[in-house]
């Protein structure tokens, strides 16, 4: 945490994959005490419902090719709110340190001398794996776990495909649905078998969750046929063959005994 002199402060908080009961206790406490919340597109309605009445709310969500609020503007907004003496929560889907543009916002806060803290959240990868009943790593099958941003800041899909197209690892592609065809083609071209397993998880951990277990060669066509939409995580590797449907079980437990109730 940076040293400062201003009255207000900013907490950069991970909202997790969507289900409100997957928030950390610290995240929930900060949201309930916030004077202002600046949130992203991937923060679920279930989590947003926890924001207290009277709290200032700012939607700064981005989607591919549609950045209604620039990153510089978001940084300036956080500084402005904190300088007004407010307790500010910068709410990000998943974990703020994983493809969450965290460093850019910390730079803005540091430049203005604003106090900040980072509150980790359950990542989209962990949330989707848990909701579909798969391990992200497994002895003898996947000794490595790799998180990959499918597109860079210029919407390019350049990767070290030779390094990615190897057995013994689990690949998790974020923001990759629009690039699914190229991802599959490149992994096959660089050595993975066409029938290498791939799991798509849409709205992981949320009531609207859908998943599709397929292969590299069939993934793009199958996703189009199922009309999958963002947010959708792409998991590639043999561990996805462990996929199970656990969401109905979790819902049943909630109804019967209040387990995991928000």
Low-confidence stretches: 1-6, 246-262
Distance between the termini: 30 Å
Total strand segments: 12
Strand content: 15-25%
SSE string? EHEHEEEHEHEHEHEHEEHEH
Please give the order of strands in the largest beta sheet: 3-2-6-1-7
Oligomeric state, counting identical vs distinct chains: single chain
Report the principal-axis shape: elongated
Average of per-residue pLDDT values:
88
Biggest sheet record: 5 strands, parallel
Describe the structure.
The chain is α/β, with parallel strands linked by helices and 262 residues long. The chain contains nine helices and twelve strands. The chain has a five-stranded parallel sheet with strand order 3-2-6-1-7, sandwiched between helices. A five-stranded mixed sheet has the order 8-9-12-10-11, sandwiched between helices. The chain has a two-stranded antiparallel sheet with strand order 4-5. α3 packs across α4.
